[in-house]
Amino acid sequence: MGEICRKFAAGAAIAVAALLSAGPAEAAGASWVAPPSEQDVAAAVNAAATARAISFAKSNFRQVGHGDPGRITLEHKGIPVYTLNPDFVAAKPGAPAGVLRAIAVTATSATGAKATLRSAPDQAAPSGWSVGNVLSGNDEEKLSARLRPGSVLLNEPQINGWYDLGRDGVVLLQASLPQSPVGEFTPLDSYQQQVHERYADKLPGSEYQRGGGIGFKQAVQQRDTGPAGSLTVGLIVFGSAVVLGGGFLAWRWTRRRINPK
Predict the structure, then answer these.
(1) I want to staple 81 with a disulfide (CB 3.0 to 4.6 A). Which of 13, 120, 192, 214 is the partner?
(2) Which UniProt keywords apply (predicted)?
(3) pLDDT tens column, 205-257
């Protein structure tokens, strides 16, 4: 089917452009989005190099290419992945637009195929991080190269939307169900109003959720070694054409996602 359709999120994302080119030491430059510490980025990258994580990557490559992927190489940088913050949707004062979800590391097979390993906080892991899933392609790596200086990469999973997020606003980089023109700058307060209109009535505790809607599903893990937590955001089901398109994309994404058992 050619390039794999991926990342219609169900339980994602960011990277400072300078961070990606120079390494994790510059992560503190985006303190307004609570970045992971240097130690956490290094631990997440190391978690992607474990035998367990590599086996997940090989399973992904076999599923895509139907053959032995050969030797797998990993990038030596981690891309912090943020996702839309329910508190931002709810217009809570001071809430950042994105919260840390994972740190992405690109893997390459011997044939040149790409996959993304996502490391997330895991208190049961020796390093405090482990690979939670592997996705085909390297969207995070490619999109992060398009960020403005000082911006980070934000994922709005309900539309599989990827944004350049800065202090002042967002620029849509790509989306399966775009809600604004790609490349157009949207001030942060306007973006907040947009996501509030789309999702505020579907947050945890809402009548929509109590009535059986999927809504947002939140599972935050706080760690002693840094400010980062992880947030899993579930697909929001719309009573419109968006729901149909979203459901189809989610089905395709789920079929090609490799999860550890």
Answers:
(1) 13
(2) Membrane, Signal, Transmembrane, Transmembrane helix
(3) 777 766 666 556 443 333 232 223 333 333 333 333 333 344 434 434 444 45
What is the three-class DSSP state of 66?
coil
Give the type of residue at 185: F
Q: Cα(73)–Cα(91) distance, rounded to whole angstroms?
A: 42
Residues facing 120 on adjacent strands: 130
With a cut of 50, say whether residue 114 has pLDDT above it.
yes
Q: In angstroms, how far is the first alpha carbon of the chain from the final one?
A: 26
Q: Pseudo-torsion of CA 60, 66, 67, 68, nearest 10°?
A: 10
> Helical H runs in the chain?
17-22, 38-48, 51-65, 86-89, 139-144, 188-199, 207-210, 241-255
The CA distances from residue 113 to 14, 50, 64, 81, 184, in Å, are 22, 19, 9, 21, 31
Write 169-173 long-range contacts (CB < 8 A, 24+): 170/97, 173/143, 173/146
Model's pTM, two decimal places? 0.71
